[in-house]
Write a structure and sequence with these properties.
The protein has 476 residues and is α/β, with parallel strands linked by helices. Among the domains are: 80 residues, dopa decarboxylase, N-terminal domain, CATH 1.20.1340; 253 residues, Aspartate Aminotransferase, domain 2 (3-Layer(aba) Sandwich), CATH 3.40.640.10. The strands form two sheets. A seven-stranded mixed β-sheet has the order 1-7-6-5-4-2-3, with helices on both faces. The chain has a four-stranded antiparallel β-sheet with strand order 8-9-11-10. Strand 2, helix 7 and strand 3 form a beta-alpha-beta unit. Helix 4 packs parallel to helix 12. The protein binds pyridoxal-5'-phosphate. Pyridoxal-5'-phosphate (PLP) binds next to helix 5. This is Alpha-methyldopa hypersensitive protein-like.
Length: 476
């Protein structure tokens, strides 16, 4: 493909994407296909000769689109948002188009340096403690990761390394493997699956402590668990608190958890994958009170901040904890400049994408006020939907936080389960279930930028009609 063909192909693709978004409401949110559907539509062997790009977009229509779950559809209320904005898409396109990879600073000075500035912009936007910012006097700083899972794992590995070093100074009789075999980490049983997975990958048992009724980590249980483990000769090393759990968007109390971590010298990591973006709005900042106790803080700009997947922001108070754990030098990685940070020592991969571009483009085109307006629109819509449900005595709104609520059909738990099945079979709106106070609930998250009050009335009508059907059948 020469550069002129590229121009044509890329422009046609941009038009295709714009059309997709303009017509997103016409698309059924969940696809009508079965596993393995694509095998019959795509040849089993690659083409011998290259073909014209013109065939490709047609095949996207015929082969790919029927197999998509439309995350940007206003009828997608499952999980959390797959954030989206046009400036972010263009930033990502440019990042790919420029074709640069950041290994060390010299392989992409702009890649590192824009990232440093963006991390400070974001930190100031969220009003997080100064100690986390690159521009602070101390050793703190921010970095873009792919996902929250990666951020949790990286911090677990750093906490592990830090604890081994600390214990060795106290117990010189122990070697690394003695200590590593006795490390233990903690979170709540409502924390995201990625927290347990970080423990699995990092070979540190992750104790998932029983949450309170609202799905929050119980500080008393945490303290007791740490004390118990110390008595057993184990080394507590890592606690993950969640601001905005995946199930119900509940918030762990950092003001109570933080001092416990401090007392026992345990690394506190705060996972605010979804909710972190909301701290751009001053009215939500009280939810992060106590963040000053955290050693690391992570949120996904790709969830609730208009940035396309992937873009997960991690700040640490002391980057040397990462550098000590991850630095591996080679002659081919050396260069003549004394530059910091060298992000290759803050992460698992060597190479990194130029993700700061999409942040830069989005923040500049929306401005902080534009981002606040977006978050307030989404949280306002959930309040609107909550009022609709509350007017209908068949439903109980169980909890509501930011742009997420959970509701159920009053009465037997099976009614809610039946409703979920019907909604899922009909594929008009996409919701998922969770368990709240031992009941099945329907999680309803405002995700699409396009979602409007009219869409919520459509969703309510769909839900209401299915409940009518269920209640009539059960009555007969
Ligand atoms: N933490 C929380 C609270 C989440 O809700 C999620 C995903 O929904 C994650 C972590 C994992 O995010 P990621 O896919 O970026 O690893």
């Amino acid at each position: 493909m020469d550069v002129n063909e590229f121009r044509e192909f890329a422009k046609a693709t941009i038009d295709y994407i714009a059309d997709y978004h303009e017509n997103i409401r016409d698309k059924q949110v969940l696809p009508d296909i079965s596993p393995g559907y694509i095998k019959d539509k795509v040849p089993s062997d690659p083409p011998k000769e290259g073909e014209h790009w013109g065939n490709l977009l047609k095949d996207v229509n015929d082969v790919i689109l029927p197999g998509l779950t439309h995350w940007q559809s206003p009828n997608f209320y499952a999980y959390y948002p797959a954030s989206y904005s046009f400036p972010s898409v263009v930033g990502d396109l440019l990042s790919t188009g420029l074709g640069c990879v950041g290994l060390n600073w010299i392989t992409g000075p702009a890649i590192t340096e824009l990232e440093v500035v963006m991390m400070d912009w974001l930190g100031k936007m969220l009003d997080i403690p100064l100690a986390f910012l690159n521009c602070s006097e101390g050793p703190g700083g921010g970095i873009i990761k792919g996902t929250a899972s990666e951020a949790t794992l990286v911090c677990l590995l750093a906490a592990k390394d830090k604890t081994v070093r600390r214990v060795k100074t106290l117990r010189p009789d122990l070697c690394d493997s003695d200590i590593k075999g006795k490390l233990v980490a903690y979170s709540s049983d409502h924390s995201n699956s990625s927290i347990e997975k970080a423990g699995l990958i990092g070979s540190v048992p992750m104790r998932l402590l029983l949450s309170d009724d609202e799905g929050r980590l119980n500080p008393q249980f945490l303290k007791e668990a740490i004390e118990q483990d110390l008595k057993l000769g184990l080394f507590p090393c890592y606690v993950v608190a969640t601001l905005g759990t995946t199930g119900t968007c509940s918030f762990d109390n950092l003001q109570e958890i933080g001092p416990i971590c401090e007392e026992f010298n345990v690394w506190l990591h705060v996972d605010a994958a979804y909710a972190g973006a909301a701290f751009v709005c001053p009215e939500y900042r009280y939810l992060k009170n106590g963040l000053e106790y955290a050693e690391s803080f992570n949120f996904n700009a790709h969830k609730f901040m208009l940035i396309n997947f992937d873009c997960s922001i991690l700040w640490v108070k002391n980057a040397f904890n990462l550098i000590n754990a991850f630095t591996v030098e080679r002659p081919y990685l050396k260069h003549e400049y004394d530059s910091a940070p060298e992000y290759m020592h803050w992460q698992i991969p060597l190479g990194r994408r130029f993700r700061a571009l999409k942040l830069w483009f989005m923040i500049r085109t929306y401005g902080v006020e534009g981002i606040r307006k977006y978050i307030r629109k989404q949280t306002g819509l959930i309040n609107y939907f909550s009022e609709i449900l509350k007017k209908d005595s068949r439903f109980e709104v169980c909890c509501k936080n930011l742009a997420l609520l959970c509701f159920r059909v009053r009465g037997d738990d099976n009614l809610t389960k039946m409703l979920l099945n019907k909604l899922y079979e009909r594929k008009q709106i996409y919701v998922i279930s969770y368990t709240y106070k031992k009941n099945t609930v329907i999680r309803f998250s405002i995700n699409s930028n396009e979602c409007s009050e009219a869409d919520l009335h459509f969703a309510y009508t769909e839900i209401s009609n299915q409940v009518d059907d269920i209640l009539n059948k059960n009555f007969i």
